[in-house]
Amino acid sequence: NAGGQTIGEIKDVVVSGDKAVSGFILSVGGFLGMGQHYVVVDPSAVTVSYDANDKKWLAKMNATADQLKAAPAFTYDGKWKS
């Protein structure tokens, strides 16, 4: 987030029929994969940039870990399940 805290990790990207990014699926909460759940956030809420010094992509959004933990969970059921 803006405070430099890790609040989640982008695990997947939702792409609409017109090939536009329509959401980011984040894993939030938990420890070492236990107790985590997924939430979908609007891509307009996320700023993605590349850090050339560290050679990695960074995503930031104005939210807290508690806000994301309280968001409705996303599940890979129905049409999303492979």
In short:
The protein is mainly beta and 82 residues long. The protein contains one helix and five strands.
Q: What does this molecule look like?
A:
By secondary structure, the chain is mainly β. It contains one helix and five strands, in the order E-E-E-E-E-H. The strands form two sheets. A three-stranded antiparallel β-sheet has the order 1-2-3. A hairpin with an 8-residue loop joins strand 2 and strand 3. It is globular, with a radius of gyration of 13 Å. It starts with 8 loop residues before the first strand and ends in a 12-residue tail after the last helix. 10% of the residues are buried.
Task: Output the keywords.
single chain, 82 residues, mainly beta, three-stranded antiparallel sheet, 1 helix, 39% strand, globular
What is the count of DSSP helices, taking H or I runs of 4+ residues? 1
Largest sheet: 3 strands, antiparallel
Low-confidence stretches: none
Distance between the termini: 31 Å
Going by helix content, strand content and strand pairing, the class is mainly beta
Order of strands in the sheet with the most strands? 1-2-3
Radius of gyration: 13 Å
State the helical fraction.
under 10%
Please give the structural blueprint.
Layout lengths: L8 E7 L5 E8 L8 E5 L4 E6 L4 E6 L3 H6 L12
Antiparallel strand pairs: 1-2, 2-3, 4-5
